[in-house]
Amino acid sequence: MTVATLAVAGCTGPSTTPAGSGSSANKALNIYLYQEPAGVFSPMAPVSGPDGQVMSFIYEGLLGVDPSYKLQPRLAESYDVSADATTFTFKLRQGLKWSDGTPFTSKDVLFTYNLMANPKTTSTTAGNYSGVAGVTDFVGGKATSISGFTAPDDNTFVIKAAKPNFGLLALIGSVWILPEHILGKDSPETVAKDEFFRKPTVGMGPYTFVEYKTNQYVHVTANPNYRSPAKIKDVYLKPMTSDNATAQLGNGGIDIASYSPTDIETVSGFGTVTTQEKPGAGFVRIAVNQAKPYFKDAKVRQAFLYALDRKQIVQTVLAGKAEVRLSNFAKANEPSGLNEYAQDVNKAKQLLAEAGWDNNREIELQWVHGQRDRDATSTIVQSQLAAIGVKVKLVNIQAAEIPKTYAEKTYDMVLYGGGNYAVDSSTINGITACANAYPAGGNINYFCNPQLDELMAQANSTADEAGRKALYDQAAKLENEQADLMWLYSPYGLWAVNKKVQGFQASGSQDALFWDPASWSITG
């Protein structure tokens, strides 16, 4: 019944002009969303893949990450990093306007960065800004403003680091900028709850928000004030199951969609689409809630990894279109010699016994249902953990309900994916640092290892590239040993695109942000 309902929902909505008729400006584009959005389209909100994909149409940052995982200027025309990586200067594009026609200036940038770094806003990335000069004093109540953020004129924004920090640019340079003229009236304590984020109709992106109809679609329309107006007028982002999305690729109901490896043969038979394949920058993993005393011992987490045959999961569930993950560090950046945690049931049982695991304890694994690889993986994990004496109850949960389980620390394990850790190894801090424990950051598993934090800090402050790499390698080995997460796999991004759609560039996995949608067009 769920599949049938979503099949109807995916086709529901306003009557849209089919791809290939009329001029580009009069055509509508239909895009598959792999999950139902939480509906809070805010860069301060807990990370949500589908909400982020929507926001990549309506917001922009000073910088953006292109499909090759390189930082590129967006709202900034250029940027400069001082030789010691303590000063980051951005020159903004001149003459830019918000979608409502209000002039855009560096004051909006200053406003946004102050919000993002202020824990009172409940920003889930506030911990990422701890390396900025003045943030520590501001958070500790010793200062009323953050000295490391300045806007010397309308077209210049400057970030000063507390000490050399070569990773800071990748960590915070692409944050989406928010409109001060809309949100400046709110106090830091209330801004995150502003109704604007339910309907963010003012932005700097190529599209503006129109409406979100739950279980049906998110509608965005071309921003008339964007610096290079979008070629396609209307875009509908439609949540549905992956099998339904594949079916709609075949009948023209969906124009752009990621697809499951199990559908490779089916999609290759569609004469109306082209396909793109790209290694992902993020990964699918299981967070183990280390706020729970029974998960604090690293031996338990190591045992869970030894219980799994992750190579089998990649081959059978993903048809080989993924890589087994060995740490948070991107495959291209990780050192040799990491523990692969190849399946070893006896080793897993031994570690659990040493840790004093209670075999009568039942733990829950929650995940959002609807993606076949994750659905199948959840069942396999349940079975393989049972083989070492761990009882697992599977729990389907809605995306909108997950943040509450993080905030209240009630969950045991959650299977999820995403992130981009290929731009720079410094971004690992966002999900490992003690200071980034949720809600300050993306460390939702409440892992904390001061030695790892120190290694990452040393690496980020080291000017010599080889020296940085050596320190990151040490950090990767320590993180691998501690098994902070149950790393599963990095799925390849498999995308199918209607042949009448031009300019789309795949950016890794199914939850990757969309790149430069203003340049897309529809021909024919």
What would you say this structure looks like, in words?
The protein is globular, with a radius of gyration of 23 Å. It starts with a helix and ends with a strand. Helix 9 packs antiparallel against helix 11. The chain has helices spanning 2-11, 49-58, 106-117, 135-139, 168-172, 180-183, 242-251, 264-268, 298-307, 310-317, 345-355, 372-386, 402-407, 429-432, 450-460, 465-482, and strands at 28-33, 63-65, 71-73, 76-81, 87-92, 149-153, 156-160, 207-213, 217-222, 234-239, 256-258, 273-278, 283-288, 322-324, 362-367, 391-396, 413-418, 485-491, 493-498, 501-502, 521-522. The protein is of the alpha+beta class and 524 residues long. The protein is 27% helix and 20% strand. The model is unreliable at 1-23 (pLDDT under 50). The strands form six sheets. The chain has a six-stranded mixed beta sheet with strand order 14-18-13-17-15-16.
Architecture blueprint of SSEs:
Blueprint lengths: L1 H10 L16 E6 L15 H10 L4 E3 L5 E3 L2 E6 L5 E6 L13 H12 L17 H5 L9 E5 L2 E5 L7 H5 L7 H4 L23 E7 L3 E6 L11 E6 L2 H10 L4 E3 L5 H5 L4 E6 L4 E6 L9 H10 L2 H8 L4 E3 L20 H11 L6 E6 L4 H15 L4 E6 L5 H6 L5 E6 L10 H4 L17 H11 L4 H18 L2 E7 L1 E6 L2 E2 L18 E2 L2
Helix pairs in contact: 9-11, 15-16
